[in-house]
Amino acid sequence: MLPSYPKQAQKKSDGNPPPAASYNQTRKKNIRTSLSRQVLSSHRADSRYMEVVRKIAAVLISKKNRRIIIAGHERPDGDTAGASLALALALESLGKKTEVRSRWPLPEYLNFLQEEKIGDASPKVRIKIGVAPLQKKYDVAVILECSDLKRAGDVIKKSQVRTIINIDHHASYGNFGDINYVDKNSSAVSCQVFHIIKAMGLRITPKVAECLYTGILTDTGKFQQRNTTPEAFAIASELLKAGIDITRINENVYSGKSLAALMLLGRALSSVRVFDKKIAFITLSREDFSQTGAVESDTEEIINYPFMIKGVDISVMMRENPDGRIKVSMRSRIIDSGGGEDRRRRGGCDLLKIATAYGGGGHKYAAGFSVSKNAAAAVVVDMEKIRDDILSKIKSAL
User: Fold this and answer.
1) Model pTM score
2) Which of 126, 140, 155, 284 could form a disulfide with 319 if both were Cys (CB 3.0 to 4.6 A apart)?
C-alpha cells in the first residue's frame, strides 16, 4: 500500500487568540505543509497508477518471486542506471536474488552508482554485461524504459521468465509486459521506481536515494527541462532527506569529464549551425571521435549548448557512430513570455512525430532515432542531406 504522509500534531487551544506574529508563522507553516502534502500525493491521487504500483509491489515482495532480473534500454544513461540499481538494492534488502543486466557498460561518470555503500574504495561491478545465459530462469523481469525486449538488448528471452514488468515514461512505448506501468507525465523512470519502493513499504536508504536522485537529475537536465514536474522536486526533496550528498553526485556526473570529452565538445561547438535563428544543428563525425579519443558517452549534455544562443528553441545533434550508423537526438524547449492576455509561447515543436517517421521514439519535446548505413544509402547520401531532411520536417511542424 502506498504510504500516507502523517499530519502534524495539533496543539489544543486554551480559548485565547494566539499572538499575531505566532499566528502568522503557524499559518505560513501550515500552508507550506499542506502544499508539500498535496505535491507528494499528486501522483498517487490517480487511481490508475495507484492500482498498478500496488500490483507491482505485491509481485516483487511475493515470497514465490525470489529471482529477479532488471534491465534498461541500450547504452544506459543516468535514469536507467539509477532506477535499475536503486530497485536492485531495495529488493536485496528483502532477501531477493537480483541481477541487473545490460549489453553495454555504464559510462565512466556513472560508475559511482555501483558502489554497495556510498564512498566504497573499490566498488564492484554490479551490472552484468551481456546476455543472460539461456539456462538461467527468473521469476520476474523488470524492464525499464523500453518499447520491447529488443530495446533492452535482448538480454533475456520471454521463455526465461515467468512474469515481465514493463515500466516506462516515454510517449512511444509498448505494452509488452504482463504488467505495464506507463506514465507519460513522469519526469523520469526513477520517479516511478521511487513509488514502487515506497509501495513495498521499504525505507529509502542513502544509497538508494543517491541512485534515484541521479536518475531524476540527469533526465530532467538538472531540473531545467520541460519534463520537470512538481512531483520531481517533491521526490528530490524526499531523497535529500534520506541523506544524499548532492555535491558528490554533481561532481561525479558533471565535473568528471576527461580531456578527450572537452576536446570533443570543442569540435561540437565549432560545428554548430543555426537556421532561421531558432533551429540549431550539431554534427560529429567518426573522425571527431577518433582524433580526440572521445567515446559515445562523452556526448552527454552537448545537445543543450545551443540553447545558450538567444532565440534558439530547437537543438539537433547528429553523430556518426563507428559502425556507420547516424544517431540523431533532438530537443525542443518552450519559452513563455508576457502575462495574462499578453502571454506568448515560443517553440514547443513535436519532435516525437519526426522521430517516429524515422523509426525512432522518445518524448514530445525530446526524441531521437538512428539511421543505419544501409538505410542511409537508400534514403539519403550523407549527414548534410539527413540534416536538410530533418530541417524541412521541423519547419513544417512549427
Assistant:
1) 0.78
2) 284
CATH 3.90.1640.10 residue spans of the chain: 47-254
- Cα-Cα-Cα-Cα torsion 289, 290, 296, 300, nearest 10 degrees, comes to -30
Residue 304 has which C-alpha cell? 543543450
CATH number, domain 259-397, options 3.30.230.10, 3.20.20.70, 3.10.310.30, 2.60.40.3780: 3.10.310.30
User: What are the pLDDT digits (tens) for 283-308?
Assistant: 999 999 999 999 888 998 899 999 99
> What integer pLDDT is reported at residue 56 of this predicted model?
97
Query: What's the distance, CA 193 to chain centroid?
Result: 11
Classify domain 47-254 at the CATH class level: alpha beta
Q: What pLDDT digit, counting tens, does each position of 22-36 carry?
A: 434 444 444 343 333
pLDDT at residue 300 in the model: 84
107 grid coordinates? 559510462
Contact in structure between 109 and 218 (CB atoms under 8 Å): no
